[in-house]
Amino acid sequence: MTLKGQISLCLAAFFLALAGQIFLSFYQSGTVLRELDDQMGNFNAISRFQNGVEQSLSAMENYRWEYGDAKALTEELNRAFSVTNAWLWRIQGDIGTVSEEQYLLYNAVSTTYGSYTALVGQLEEAVASGEDAQAAQLYYNKIVPCGGYLRQYTQQLLNRAIADAQSTYTTVSALSDRVKWAQTVVVALCLALGCVMALSVIHLLTPVQQLIGASREVTRGVFDSPDLPVPHQPEMAQLTEAFNHMKHSMAEQVTTLREKNEMERELHRQKTEALELQNRMERSRLQQLRSQIDPHFLFNTLNVILQTAGQEKAYRTQALITALSHLLRYSLMSNDEQVPLAREVRIVDEYYSIYHVRFGDRVRMVWRISDSLDLTETMVPSFILQPIVENCVFHGLEPKAEQGHVTIRISGTKDMMKVIVEDDGVGMPPDVLDKMRAALEEERQPTNQPDTHGNGIAMYNVNQRIKLAFGRDYGLFVYSTENLGTDVEIWMPKVYTKEELLMQ
């Protein structure tokens, strides 16, 4: 017999199993009827629970705030919750006994009821303490919305329970009608084909068992076992030949994949080594850029101290040296790649205290820091504010005859931070501004020529360090108008300390 004939006999076996299933359907019908009774009890419990919820809501709705009877309200709520608590556990919420939608609605009712009872408990405490105003605010702001959700979910759960009960009843009725006439026909057909199926199974078992054993060897990675013998049945012969061919093809593919994996691992190792080398080069370049700040800053600060020492007595010079020591300590000993924003603000204040001695009221500094920023938890690259402020003082305000201002604005969003350092000094001519912008965009260090006003190196340094730390999408942006002032914007991502990131 061909494989097609044998499959036909397998279908006969299916009909035999179907006969058994139809025989059991009578028992299943009784089970479904009992399930209907359970469902009737289920939506009865839901209805009783719903009445208790409505009773509690009505009690709070009818309560006269500031003039009501607190004891009566508490007693009414206790009666209502005794009802809801008694019937909530009777509601069927097991995923094995109810539909998925009913299960989800029950969880929504249970969760919302927990929140609702907690809020009502807080309201009872407030009413008992005589804090009716607080209780009223709690009722209108939290309990009313929560009660509305609870009422909505409970009604949806009741509707779903009724719908499921109706669907089950319809199914039982239809099943009972079909079983009565199909049972005799199907069972008789299965009995007639049972004998023929037994013979065909005997012929199919031997090659099938051989294929099963060979398949298990392939799953274990054994491909060098002998090929299966080809049976006489045409279809099984084709299947066996295809399996033997597949085994040889899989052996070749496994060998190819192993060689490919070895090549990929070697390539990954080479890429990792190249990336590590690039990171070391970037860190070295970053350290070099940071070191350029110190001599420039030290020269200008010592110049101020020298001028002040000739004008003032020793105690003023002592104050300047104290402030300078703080600046030098931060400049020479800070090796961290990033520091809290509070440290940057403090170092700018130290710098201004030194220059304020020289300039007096000619230079005024104004801080505008957003309240949303935590200066101690927000991290920035070290020594990025002071060089920009120093440029504003020396190149923007010092040539100006009247009083000048430096305004520092620090704001941020969830992911970004923006720093604006602006002055109302002499500004930059258009050609100088164009050269500086070109140097920042091309990431090349400007030459210290007179036409750059000597302020390009510091801003290039800060710009490069920000780009190396966060990427080329961030850095400095310069805006200036001659005789009106200069604005320097610093854009960078908001970075938090490790402790703050763990809390988030």
Structure report:
This protein has 504 residues and is of the alpha+beta class. The protein contains 12 helices and 8 strands. It folds into 2 domains: 3-198, Four Helix Bundle (Hemerythrin (Met), subunit A), CATH 1.20.120; 292-503, Heat Shock Protein 90. Strands 2-4-5-7-6 form a 5-stranded mixed sheet. Strand 4 (404-412) and strand 5 form a beta hairpin. Helix 2 packs antiparallel against helix 3 and helix 6 (293-311) packs antiparallel against helix 7 (314-333). The longest helix has 88 residues, at 132-219. The radius of gyration is 42 Å and the shape is flat.
Structure summarized in a few sentences:
The chain has 504 residues and is an alpha+beta fold. The protein has helices at 3-61, 70-88, 100-128, 132-219, 234-291, 293-311, 314-333, 341-359, 385-397, 430-442, 456-470, 498-503; strands spanning 338-340, 363-369, 378-381, 404-412, 416-423, 475-481, 485-493, 495-496. It is flat, with a radius of gyration of 42 Å.
Outline the fold blueprint:
Elements: H1 3-61, H2 70-88, H3 100-128, H4 132-219, H5 234-291, H6 293-311, H7 314-333, E1 338-340, H8 341-359, E2 363-369, E3 378-381, H9 385-397, E4 404-412, E5 416-423, H10 430-442, H11 456-470, E6 475-481, E7 485-493, E8 495-496, H12 498-503
Parallel strand pairs: 2-4
Antiparallel strand pairs: 1-3, 3-8, 4-5, 5-7, 6-7
Helix pairs in contact: 1-2, 1-4, 2-3, 3-4, 5-11, 6-7, 6-8, 7-8, 8-9
Characteristic terms for this protein:
Heat Shock Protein 90, flat, 71% helix, 504 residues
